[in-house]
Amino acid sequence: AFDMSVNMNKLSESLNLTADQRESVSDVHHTFCGEMMVAAQAGNEDQKDLMIKAVNKDLKYMHYILNKEQYRKYVMVLNATLLNRGLDVTK
Length: 91
Description:
By secondary structure, the protein is mainly α. The chain is 77% helix and 0% strand.
């Protein structure tokens, strides 16, 4: 459930990323995947907190990289992915 890896080609296509954006999004997403794996290894009391921090950090960086429309689509994709994997990141 904590494996957040995605097909970068499909994500790039759906968000209509430029080459520069694609590289940046890939780097940020790689970091996000690592942070989610750390959350997976944490004890139950810390797990949700680490997930929320990872998601918020990911969204902050993506907001900087993506334009308004791309960001809106990205948030929808991320929310759907989290829901499909049964991960609750609400406080």
